[in-house]
Amino acid sequence: MAIDIMTDNCSNWFVIQTYAGKEGRITDVLLDLIKEPARLFFPRRKLYIRKKGEYLYNIKALYPGYLFIKGEDDSLYNLDLCKTIYRKKSILQGFIKILMKEDRPFFCEREEMKVVFDLVNREGIVEESRFYREGEIVKIIEGPLKGYEGIIRGINKRKNRVKVELKFLGVNRLVDLCIFEVR
């Protein structure tokens, strides 16, 4: 959450799997454990929702059930970090596992993380975007989706949401983000 997204090189990020909805609590505990806030990343999205006739903003996880930890090129450091997290598993309520490949943490692809870093602000939140239509073509004029029109898979104007296809752990996933039409 306190990551300096502008200076990060997008590589060496591995994934912690949690129960959906427990990411915030685990983030707080891990921040105390790791002592380096720039090494923990919990991407979230701002959604515009209607509740009892009123429209409100709500912050939700971009990838429910997942947190990211910045590793190092040094595999011993990464293994020590994983062991430390597993030793503290009893206080990490909602922790499931660290995604591993063989006996090492599974790192996300650099390109996958770059797209996420491009979309989020300094607090790790994907803000709303603004768009207009030219016939069948959607033009993003403002917000994090500007320049990423190619990943848009659908727009729900009633809910002010756009379906965006993001690659995560090698799999394409559809994620809802907030969007407003400008006329």
Question: Can you characterise this structure?
Answer:
This protein is α+β, with helices and mostly antiparallel strands and 183 residues long. The chain is built from three helices and 14 strands. The strands form four sheets. It has a five-stranded mixed sheet, covered by helices on one side. A four-stranded antiparallel sheet has the order 2-5-1-6, covered by helices on one side. The protein has a three-stranded mixed sheet with strand order 4-3-9, with no helix packed on it. β13 (161-168) and β14 (171-181) form a beta hairpin. The protein is elongated, with a radius of gyration of 18 Å.
Given helix and strand content, the structural type is alpha+beta
- The stretches of 5 or more residues where confidence is low (pLDDT under 50) are none
Order of helices and strands: EHEEEEHEEEHEEEEEE
**What level of helicity do the residues show?**
10-25%
Q: Specify the biggest β-sheet.
A: 5 strands, mixed
For the biggest β-sheet, the strand order reads: 11-10-14-13-12
Number of helices: 3
Provide a short characterization of the protein structure.
The chain has helices spanning 23-34, 75-87, 110-119, and strands at residues 13-18, 40-41, 44-51, 54-61, 66-70, 95-98, 100-101, 104-105, 125-126, 129-134, 137-142, 152-156, 161-168, 171-181. With 183 residues, it is of the alpha+beta class. The longest helix is centred in the middle third of the chain and has 13 residues, at 75-87.
Quickly list its features.
14 strands, four-stranded antiparallel sheet, 183 residues, alpha+beta, five-stranded mixed sheet
